[in-house]
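Dear support,

Our group has been running a series of protein-ligand predictions, and this particular one with protoporphyrin IX containing FE is the one our PI (initials K.S.) wants archived with full inputs and outputs. We had some confusion internally about which version of the output was final, so please treat the block below as the authoritative record. The input we submitted was:
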Amino acid sequence: MTQPSWNWSDAEQREIALGFDLETFDEGFIENPYPAYRAIRRHNPVCRLPDGTYFISRYRDLVTILRDADRFISDKRVDFKKKFGESALFEHHTTSVVFNDPPLHTRMRALMTPFFSPHALSTLKPRVETFVEGLLDRLEEKRRFDLKLDFAQALPLNLVGDMLGVPVEERTPLADWAVLILGALEPSLTEEDFKKGCDAVDEFKAYLQALIESKRLSPGSRDDFDILGALVDAETLEGKLSELELLHNCIFLLNAGQDTTTSLIVNGVEALFRFPEALEKLRRRPELLATAVDEMLRLESPLQIGNRKCVVDFDLDGHKLPEGAFLHIGIGCANHDESYFDNAESLDIERYPNKHLAFSKGIHTCAGNALGRLEIEVAIGKLLERFPNLHPTGNLVRGPRARFRSVMGYPMAID
Ligand code: HEM
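Confirmed final output from the archive:
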C-alpha cells in the first residue's frame, strides 16, 4: 500500500479497497489506517480478504452483526484450533468470556458484573484519583517523561492488580504478559510471537494458581475490590467458575483493561495536540471531559478490529455472507463512517449523542467500560489541570499492530 493519503483519487481508493489484506499491511497503514478504511467503506464495504475471511467496515453493518449473537457467534474453537493448535494460547483464548457464547458466556459474565456496578466504581474513584495524583507528582519532578511509560500504563496495571489482589511488588510482569497474549490475536502471527504468547499464558497461569492457593488459605479478609478473592470465596456457589475458567478469565480481565485503557489515554492526549482548538476548549471548559473522552474513544478506538463468525447464510445489506464466514469487525473503521458521524475525521469534544462502537454492542459490550471511562477521565482531566504547559517533544510511536491502536511511547515535557 502507498503512504496513507486523504487525497487518493477515486481510482486509487478503489484499488486499495479491492487489494486490502490484513496479513500484509505496512507501516503506513499502522500509522494511519483511516484513509484506507474510508476507501473500503466506499468501494468494498463487505471486503473479502485473500484468506477467505471478511472485513466489515460500515457502521450500520456492524450494528446488525453485533446485535445478533445467535447468527454471529463469538466461540472461536474451530478457528483458533487452526491458528493456535493444542496450545496454551488456544486454552486461554477459548476459555475467556469474550470468546464464548451463551449459556457459558452468560454464566461467566453474571459473575463478573457486580464488580463493575456503579456502587463498586463509586468506591473505587477516590483510589483512582489518589493514584493519578501520585503519578503526576513524579512527572512534575521529572519535567520530561514518556506519557505511556511513566503515566498511562501504570494506572490500569495497578487497578487491575488491586482487582486481582496481586501484591504491588509482583505487578511488573503483568503488563508484558498482557501484550504478548493479546498480540497473538493479530491477523498475522510469527512463530516467535506464538511461542512468547504461549509462554506468557503458562507463566501467568502458574502465578495466579499460587495466588489463588494463598487466597484459599486466608478466606474472608478481602479488599472491597478484590475480584479474584471474591471468586475464590464463591467457589461453592451454584454457577461458579471452574478453576481453569477462573484462571483464564482473571488473565483476560487483566489483559482487557490494560492496553486498551493505556492506549486511549495516550492517543486521546495526542489527538488533543493534533486538534489544538479542542485542547484549548477542554482546558477552558473541563465540564466537557466526559463527552471529550467518548469522542477520543470514537476517533482512536483502542480495539480497532473484533471478530465474529457467521453461522447461517446471511444477506448483509445486499452482500452475501456464507455460513461459516469468519468476520473481522472493523470497529475503528465504522467509528469513522461519514454516513453516520458528521465530520468523522475531526475531534469534536462536544459530540452528543456519540453512539460509537469502541466498547462494542450487544451481549459482549465491554464489561469494564465504566471503569475504563473512569480511569481515562481522571487521568486526562488531572493531567491537563495540573500541567498547563504540557507539550509533546516528539512524535507518538505506534506499536506494530492492526487489531489494537497500540502505542510504544509519546515523549512529553512540562517546561
Ligand atoms: C478504553 C478501555 C476499553 C476498551 C476500548 C474496551 C473495549 C472492549 C471491547 C470492544 C469489547 C468487546 C469485544 C467484542 O465484542 O468481541 C470488550 C469486552 C470486554 N472488556 Fe473491555 N475495553 C476497555 C476496558 C476494559 C476494562 C478496564 C475492563 C476490566 C478490567 C474490561 C473488561 C472487558 C470484559 C470482561 C469484556 C468481555 C465482555 C463479554 O464478552 O461479555 N475492558 N472490551
